[in-house]
Amino acid sequence: MSSENLPQSPDQQRRKPRVAVVFGGRSSEHGVSIVTAGAILRAIDRTKYDVLPIGITTDGRWALTADEPERMAVTDRRMPTIAEIAESTEGAVVLPVDPGNREVVYSEQGSVPKALGEVDVVFPMLHGPYGEDGTLQGLLELSGIPYVGAGVLASAVGQDKEYMKRVFISYGLKVGPYEVVRPREWKLDPAAARKKIVDFAGEHGWPLFIKPARGGSSMGITKVDSLEGLDEAVEEAQRHDPKILVESLLRGREIECGVLEFEDGPRASVPAEIPPVTAHDFYDFEAKYIDSATGLVPAPLTPEQTAEVQRLAVEAFDAVSCEGLVRADFFLTEDGEFVINEINTMPGFTPISMYPRMWQESGVGYQELVDRLIQAALNRSTGLR
After folding, report:
1. Which of 55, 67, 185, 252 could be a cystine partner for 24, CB 3.0 to 4.6 Å?
2. Interhelix angle for 303-319 vs 161-170, to 10°?
3. CB–CB of 98/123 below 8 Å?
4. pTM
């Protein structure tokens, strides 16, 4: 019997839904995830929900953390870590892999395991591999616990930029030129892999962007203006992902658009524009999270351009079979055409992040946005749907 069909006791019927906010993780976006989760914890309406904060350390341990969002912030240009905010350096939180049981347990070596109560929904504020890529979503599907955001397939496709682009192309969405270098290519014949990149540059021109194929938050991305520095750029990208993506420079304006799933289907927010970042070579990690470079909301577009990018954002959402939310990133080229760069199935979610800002301008405030996502997850079953 699936968990959503289990009869509820009077206590279950009376209590508030419990939301487990899961954050941190094993990817290089560990700190970004914590900062984002801090904002979510501040926003969740405690009169409607009980909250259980669970942090995942960089080595994969699920740790119980204090419900103290003020400790989950950038301090002196440094990101926080779960090791700093976990209640114990040894204890572990365990989710049941049983769709008939949603009881979460906390255990420490030499101690009797402690029941933390049932979890009704998970808000997975994880970015990058081991959380945003379908792995955590698969665990939650096995556990029968509803969760916010995209399912297994959409999360995996949304994380892997190669297959994301392949799906977009199959649905008629225009993408920019790109090339993929797989781990075995660079390892077994680096000269041939290097020539593959140089030939791509010969066709599409320098500069190139060398990036992890399955990364986010602009981590590991290098702008390369010539053959010099290419190997270093590949090495930097492979610190985050052995598979790398090579993209040509698209000249144009950077436009973003949020998609949110409502009761009648997905809708697009007003778009935003990321203006050129003068202090940085491009919109990299430090520009986004350390120096807090911000965009223009709404983007200064014509009504026709706004309608077009909103239509394309919803098409991208549907093409990848997303659920809940997406931020879609585009280039508006010099000839007036929108080219989709990528989607993010769990975008940055602090109040100053672009996704919440776009929805704020569209009439959905931050707390309402968080509440809508939780309610949508509670109303959606796990399994095939």
Report:
1. 55
2. 110
3. no
4. 0.89
